[in-house]
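[step 3/7] fold_predict: job queued, chain A
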Amino acid sequence: MSHYQAPVKDIMFLLNNVFELSELSELPALADFSPDLIGAVLEEAGKFATGVLAPLNSVGDQQGCSFDDGQVSTADGWIDAYKQFCDGGWMGLALPEAYGGQGLPNFIAMPVNEMWNSANLSFEMLHTLIQGGSEIFLSLGTDVQKARYLEQLVSGNWTVAMALTEPAAGSDLGAITTRAILNEDGSYQIKGQKIFISYGEHDVAENIIHLVLARTPDAPPGGRGISLFAVPKYRINADGGVGELNDVACMSIEHKTGLHGSPTCSMSYGDNNACFGELIGTENRGLSAMFILMNAARLSTGLQGVAIGEVGYQRALEYAQERVQGTDITGKKRVPIVEHPDVARMLLSIRSQVMGLRSLSYLIAARIDKASLSKNEQTRQSMNSSVALLTPVFKAFATESANLMAGTTIQIFGGMGFIEETGVAQLMRDSRITTIYEGTTGIQAKDLLFRKIAADKGAALSDLLAEITQDAEVLASIDSFTSLAEVLQGICAEVARMSERVVQAEQDDQLGLYAGSLAMLEAIGILCCSWQLGCVALTAHQKLQEGDDPAYHENLIALTRFYFAHFTPRVLSLTQTFFQADAGVKDYQFSVR
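[step 4/7] structure written:
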């Protein structure tokens, strides 16, 4: 099953009503992006998703990629789809017009990327890598480097591979051993091996720019001694064209649980001492440079979770409406399984999570735009702090939710979901990696507690809680939403209690914080989704007052009530877990059997 329908109506509701495009249009750089223009972009992107990418999704899953003597071949249709993608100008969607891009803001690019991820996650990874790599060159590249790389990347002639992980290092990038030795001409000789490199080798573009983390001979130990280098597969001639092979070799591709359409490569650099790269930024600042790409990649990975949930819901709903089994609750007539309360519960659990997470992702995108475009320094700082706080929450919570939503999708299909031919098993296999790459869930939780909450003494989180509380007061002003407002205010208080403990923690409480970090991240994730769905209900209520599409907007209010009943209360139990999370952890001896 490869069908997928772009959820343009839901997307436009969130963009146009919840985030009030009029507010963003007040920024001079965004003044031309009217709702009509945004709708047109979404419609065209949706057509490409449904007409070109979605039919290839199962092809990529079933065929996978092939490896032969260092060469990687992608699945049937990949090369042609990539050409159509580039010819349509989609590669440069959110990149500057000066280099051939379309210059669209993040709040438009985010929903477009979501649709492409739903249609074909393995394919969309190519675009995500190029977007992130381009942003590194835009931020840190010299004028010469920008001229050399950016137009080629924006056009899609060249692609990007993130070469971070090594066999003995894993997520501990401070332990990498790849070497970079300065040559007399200012280039560097690169030597080392990397693993788990997405699209490190393929056949869809003429060159691949590897962004390689490596150490110079006199670099300090650990993360402080890592530098970032641009290492092209083929050397770049003086005229900007592609030259000879740069001693970059793919040794193998992985046989993976999912994402079969995306080649994951083991790469070797400099086996013949003839691999050359150029420094990006300054020596020993490679990790901070790479985090430009990494933070974007974390948001993109969280968005993959939303996308997987959306396509799972679409397939499960269609099946549940067609599959007749059992009787209704009166026992008098056979009905489609969508009429069984438990199936309805599962469908609503997926859809409510998707809407809450989707709304959160668009909120983050809009705040990235405000941070970069606002002329007010206080606004920029506030938006940057909010994005920094929400990024680990969104990445981890959305991807963990995606795995649960994929499992629920299979559950709705019953035994047929366990059969590969229905296509929904692919969702579970593809989603599994999302909680791992770009920083595992545990890494995100640690980042949230120690680098985001403890580091600023809870200031950014306090601002977020104040904002949510303010919206809860608006909810309380509507009689039918009073109970929702009370629940939202209550879980704000619970998260505030957790934050207070983090800020005031003593050194001997560090184990408890580490052990409880995931519980706090999940609690904030549920809080944010509850908040966003509360805003959805407010907007839907206003639309009902105006007589606009009653059935659709009444459904959105029902969806909000469902989430507040089935998910929001979990914050209370997560708070209890957080305050006693080290129970057993500090005492259990794994050496005892």
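[step 5/7] annotate
The mean pLDDT is 94.
The longest strand covers residues 188-198.
exit 0
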